[in-house]
Design brief:
Layout lengths: L7 H6 L13 E3 L11 H4 L5 E3 L19 E3 L19 E3 L22 E3 L11 H8 L5 E2 L2 E2 L2 H9 L1 H36 L5 H10 L6 H16 L26 E2 L5 E5 L3 E6 L10 E5 L3 E6 L2 E6 L10 E4 L6 E6 L13 H19 L10 H7 L5
Helix pairs in contact: 3-4, 3-5
Amino acid sequence: MVRFAVTEELVRKRSEHNERMIGTLQELSLHQENIEKIEHIHNWCKDLKILLLQSNLISKIENLWKLKKLEYLNLAINNIEIIENLEKLESLQKLDLTLNFIGDLTSVESLRDNYNLRELILTGNPCTDYPGYREFVVTVLPQLTQLDCTDITRTERILAAKCFPDIRQGIIQRQVQYKIRRDEQKIRVMQQLEEDAKARQHLSDEERTKHFWDSKSEHSPEMRVEIARQHSKAHEIPPTCDPLAPPKRTLKLFSSSGRAFCINEPKIDFHFRDKPDSFELELLVYRFLDTAHLSIDVQPNYVRVSVKKKIFQLALDEEVKCDESTSQRSDITGHLLIKMPKLHGKIVKESGFNSKDAVKVVEKDKNNDNKSKCVDYRNIVKDCKDIEDEIPDLI
């Protein structure tokens, strides 16, 4: 069975508004991710002020004690049965526990030390059906100003305090009765799941799925977890392959001789400038593309840029210095500029020259090099008269 957990990849994905930086994150939303356990968040995101974990499969409140700046915690629509481990959240102002399975109302007393707590929501929990539920919470938590989105008046608080001892005894009796019913429900649900699993052994995958969704089930934390697992199985089924479909084309980056191909898989516009001393490649990537989706690789004979896992590759006519190559991105347009110094490039002084003068200087240097390589035939031999005197007579 797959276990739904909090991963670093998931947290970074949900922190795009903070440029995927989780160390300075102040708001995090991990709703509808089928998370079963709260973990790692207190170590990765210590500056959190808002944490949204609604619509998950969390059964226990834990691993939040390091979040000293947390002001709003939303754990609505989960499998929580008891309020605990929130005493050290000294900045907590609002706690939402809507539609959970909290039957232990006396666990609310653990929130007495949260002196900044102003709003508490317990709507949809079994404990809200207990007689005197509101009076009990109002008396136990004098710092509250709202309970279940309703303001707490001073008169209500005074009247609740008068009958608090009797209300507390009645609530404890109700809790004992609920705990007995809950234990019986656990046994009943586990037996039902085992029987359904035996009945579906000889069925196909489609028939098993249909049998599960057609059968009746109780409203319990165990069934919510099983429903989530069935949903995940349905999404994990691979699509059937069409035998007549053409095979996927594999991208070929190099020829058989090792020469790099020019490839523009992302189909983006670009400008390439061949300067005397360097090559410049400007990719017109769009402005709001996250830089994390760009990967640059400069080699002596080619340059490769990965744009959201699509390859742009350009072969170079001359070798470049990989270690001295640089890349930068414009804050205004988002365009990417890669500068690659040539290995045997001509050094051109920029002061007092424009681009046309630089080309002329390079051409002049080439002409001088050609002249220096020519043979000076005038100094090979001396004058003809001297040569005739030195030639001996024939015998």
